[in-house]
What we know:
By secondary structure, the protein is of the alpha+beta class. The protein has helices spanning about 5-10, 20-30, 65-90; strands at about 35-40, 50, 55-60. A hairpin with a 2-residue loop joins β2 and β3.
Amino acid sequence: MPTTPQESSRDSLPHFQNVAQRLAQAIGTAKEMGFDVRKVVFDDQTPGWCQIGEKKILFLDLTASTAEQLNQLDDIIASYCNQKSQRESGKLAA
C-alpha cells in the first residue's frame, strides 16, 4: 500500500511553515527575550532596537512585507546577540 507524506510532521518543521507563521513565532521569541516589539512606519530610519533603562524595544518597518519583516527581525536579534556577546567579553563598553 503506498504511503503519503506525513503532513503533520512536515508542518511542524520551520521550513514548511509559511512566512507569517515564522514571523509570529520570531516575534514571540523576541518577546521572550524581553523585547517590546513595535511595528512602525519608517521614513528614512532603519529598523532596529534600543534600550531605555531596563526596557528593550525592537522596531520593525510596518510598510515592509512579511518576509522583509522576518529578515529585519532576524538581523536585529543577531545584532543584539552580537553586541551582548561583545559587551560580556569586554570588547564593547557598556
